[in-house]
Design a protein that fits this description.
6 helices, 0% strand, mainly alpha, elongated
């Protein structure tokens, strides 16, 4: 049966807040995973750009003694080459973790705000309910 307008508004705000928090949790989880997995690429490209004379040309000791323009260019190219497989690894880790934690199943439809009925987390979700097969 339909809810009253005041109750409908309250449920809409609750469901919207819950869905927004779940979205932010997914975004934070994705950011952490991608940052950790892509850290080698970030470091290699950073040092390549930092020591190249046409970009930043740092006055650090390791830039003068170890890295010249050719080796800095090699680091930049290496960093961008290893980025592609690491992106695939990061996405696989995120998808595996999201599936294991069932993060995508927790989003609630706004139809719960219009009609009376308990949300999935209140009535106990079926174990057969999955976001993907």
């Amino acid at each position: 049966e339909p809810r009253s307008p005041c109750c409908c508004l309250a449920w809409t705000l609750l469901i919207g807040t819950m869905n927004s928090l779940l979205f932010l949790l997914n975004l934070l989880l994705m950011f952490v995973i991608f940052t950790v997995v892509l850290l080698p690429t970030i470091v290699v490209v950073y040092f390549g750009f930092q020591c190249h004379s046409q970009v930043l040309h740092s006055s650090a000791r390791y830039c003068k003694s170890v890295l010249d323009d050719n080796s800095s260019s090699a680091l930049i190219i290496l960093g961008f080459v290893i980025m592609s497989p690491l992106l695939v690894v990061a996405m696989a880790i995120y998808c595996s973790l999201a599936r294991r934690l069932q993060l995508l199943v927790c989003f609630q439809p706004y139809s719960l705000a219009l009609y009376k009925g308990a949300p999935c987390w209140a009535r106990g979700c079926s174990s057969r309910l999955k976001a993907w097969v």
